[in-house]
Amino acid sequence: MKELNCIVVDDEPMALDLIESYVLKTPFLKLAGKCNNAFEAMQLLKEENIDLIFMDIQMPDLNGLDFSRTLKGKARLIFTTAFDQYAIEGYKVDALDYLLKPFDYTEFLAAASKALDWYQITERNNQDSGGERKPAKEYLFVRSEYRQLKIRIDDILYFEGLKDYIKIYLKDQQKPILTLKSLKSIFEELPEKRFMRIHRSFVIALDKIDEIERNQVVIQGKRITVSESYRDDFQEYISKNSF
């Protein structure tokens, strides 16, 4: 079963906690974060690969409908609100579903299942048409200090995200390359089966792992912790490649 990375956005703490509890008890949902407002959600979307957003509509400064009009990329929305007059507006911005507060877990699960169905159908259609999420490539061009540098995929050890820029560590090169780019955006450009995100701040080249010790990987002497959010995916990869 496909697992959907999701975030919950609501300015009411009780509503935030309730939806979080619903997410945690749903096997195909993985909670990537909670946000008190749309601006926090925007920042998290830059850092994480998000499939699904549970978002309240009525929030201060930037409401859910206005936020949805700024949304780019693959993340889909399920609106949560206490006001049913927003239902038509919600579908105008192509929300997957609309949950009217107060809603119970059965209603939540039905909406989440609709999102799962949508992603599975989309994925199946892409496979039938021969599409791939990430094309095979041998190198990347990255901007660093007013230059476009050509980096061979085979030379990449790992990426480290530092707020608004990333460090790219290469074999046979002590000093990392700095580029003004998000970790999420560069991860989407990488060959899918060769790289994995194991931490909010790290993407690693799987073939460059020298050893694994408890919850850490070692790449040319650098120890990187596999965070809890990414541990299941990493353990599944290790199990498939162990004998």
Notes on the structure:
The strands form 4 sheets. The protein has a 5-stranded parallel beta sheet with strand order 2-1-3-4-5. A hairpin with a 2-residue loop joins strand 14 and strand 15 (222-225). The protein is globular and about 60 Å long. It has helices spanning 13-24, 38-47, 64-68, 87-92, 105-128, 183-187, 228-240; strands at residues 4-9, 29-35, 52-56, 76-81, 97-100, 139-144, 147-152, 156-162, 165-170, 177-179, 195-199, 202-205, 211-213, 216-219, 222-225. The two termini are 24 Å apart. The chain has 243 residues and is of the alpha/beta class. It folds into 2 domains: 4-128, Rossmann fold, CATH 3.40.50.2300; 139-240, OB fold (Dihydrolipoamide Acetyltransferase, E2P), CATH 2.40.50.1020.
The DSSP helix count reads 7
Q: What gross morphology would you assign?
A: globular
Please write the string of helix (H) and strand (E) elements. EHEHEHEHEHEEEEEHEEEEEH
State mean pLDDT (0 to 100 scale).
85
So, the CATH homologous superfamily of the largest domain?
A: Response regulator
